[in-house]
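U., I forgot to send this yesterday:
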Amino acid sequence: MKNFLLVFFILYVHNLLAQIVVIKDGFSNSIIQNATLSYKSNGVTSGKNGEANISIFNHDNIIKISHVSYQTIEIKKENIDSIVYLKQKTTVLPTVVFSEEVNVPKYEKHSIFKIKPVGVSKLQSSISGLLSSESSVVVQESQSGGGSPNYRGMEANRLLLIVDGIPLNNAIYRSGHLQNSATINPFFIKSISLLSGPASAAYGNGAMGGALVFNTITTSKINRFLFQQQFETSSNAVVASFKANYYKNNVLHVTALSLKSADNLRMGANRLHGYKFWGNEITSNNRQLYSNYTKIDFIHKSSCEINSHNKIQLNTQYATSSNIARFDKMNDIIDEMPKYKNWYYGPQVRFFQSIEYTAKYRSLAFDNLITTLAFQNLKESRHISPLGDTLLNNRSEDVKIYDYTTNFSKKIHNISLSYGIGLRDQKIKSLANLSDTNGEAFYNTTRYPNEGSNVQDIFAHTQVNIPIKKNTDLYVGGRWNYRQLEARFNSQKFNFDNIQNNNAAFVSSILISYRPISKIIMNTSYYSGFRNPNIDDIGKVFSKDDINVVVPNSKLEPEYANNLEFSLNFLLEKWTINTQLFNTQISNAIKREYGSLNGVDSMLYDGQMMRVQMNKNIESATINGASFSASFKATKNFLMRSRLNYLIGKTNDNRPLAHIPPFNCKIAFNYKFKKHILDFYINYNGWKLAKDYDDAGVDNLEEATIDGNPSWHTINLVYSKKLEANLSYSIAIKNILDAHYKTFGSGISASGRNFILSLRAHF
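Result:
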């Protein structure tokens, strides 16, 4: 015990003596190298990671922080946080926030927003909570612990999720709602960027509406241990997270572990919408039964700078959960009785391993290259038993993904060029059985081809930035993708033919960026996106409603999106304003329609006669949208922020398009004084009327009221205090009014009044 206390004391004193701050750009959140921190004749300089050791200064020294490209500030040492933000001297507004953390060309100018998990974000124990709180992304939830991001009316397989440069999307991504983002832990996130524009050119298949790019924690030349403990009353959730940065010689490591246990989620008791019984089907004291779960997440990275020109990094990630009930199914009531005895997802498992090689050589072909080899193993399962049945219907999927990419960048005078090649190989194994209470298993039909499936993609892409004039830039990009798909059937019950489906797609992007004056920048862009049909589109056999059954269709082609976008940005002394208008034309879209199999329109599936459906390339649609965001720094310590989003989506025959969220907005106030931070914010979502829901049932109208999804708002308050250089805590009250509501498309009610206590310490 004495030895432990001695070590603890040494580490604590070391932290006080070796205080590290990071200098960053206040607009882009990118690091600033070679910033000078000085007091009289003493001074230090920020290194390549933006880090500076300020232990040489006394507690009451007023430190001057300066850089040739940034406005100089002076701040008392005791008031310095772990991150110091500087404001650019130039009044030129970047069109986007770009960071080297995003694995796309450095000249890319299409990032819509960027999130760093600081302040309020640190209290988010799920990616869905982080996205919905800090961005314009709307998140649908079918059960606790998950979430399906929706951006500009694009969701699930039309919105690309990138984790450390590798797509999370896979060959069994469906068109409805997905909970795969639950495998990403917010504690591991360094930043999140949302790319529209040429996201399809940069990242490829599935980026029809854009790409959410998640960048996880990185190694650094610092020995530090971080611990965070969090408790939430709405679900009695306990979250414990640990992170350690350490290095020896030239090898740097970072390791993090997060554990979460959550009880049944309590929904709001104050029914401001007036619907007395909505969402009350399976509750006890406003707690939604079967919504409890546990979760474990792990990440480790090791990097080694071989020399000044070469670097290699290993990246390992693992995520798993307990069984998680599909709440929107468990609350199905027929004749005042639950429809299901069991409906739950088995543990959702994600294993990720990659090796990344970075080289910096000035040659004729490139200046820099990044080569990545990655492997993912994704596992998921469904377990269903209607009330009264003695057998449990079990279906499971195992997806193995192999990725290879090499990206190059080259600077030729003032022209920036980026290009790359890659391939992806996916192997899908689908299993199924019926099990009784004794554990005996019987034959069952699989969700996907029972003899296995394979999908291979090969692709090439390029992007170029050409400065036309001093105040005008041209950005052009293109991507070619070729896909081979094979699905093999050997069913005792269904006579499906094996499927071969080969498709090629090409997409392009162009953007003109114009600065009429230094404080204003205008962007006009066109970009196309695509999505090749996958195994879920082509080879799935399943029923959502026990009335219709979806069967394979081998003749599907890629679906496309053509986008026009205009943005106007202002960066003033105290104001930052961004306005965006866009139009998206969807063509050749895949949609489920009634059909026939072997000349008949019905078939026996899961013991019931059901109407046959299949996916077809028949739909075209239009999405129009506008977004607005603004921030106003009233004083040095007081900041106001707001954002709003509005979408209209219709098929070409004037029917409502699926995945179109209602009008939503947020207004936030932030006050900072010395070691105290106070955040107050209001979230508002408008009505989604029943007549505006899609007619295919994707939007889950059955989970809304008879009139649709009512409007709602929440009032939230967060207080944070830094006790010592290495210790801070936060107290929050979310949904102060204890309002009952559901986010659009969700099958579970959102959290009611929630008290959150969080403690962070680093050594």
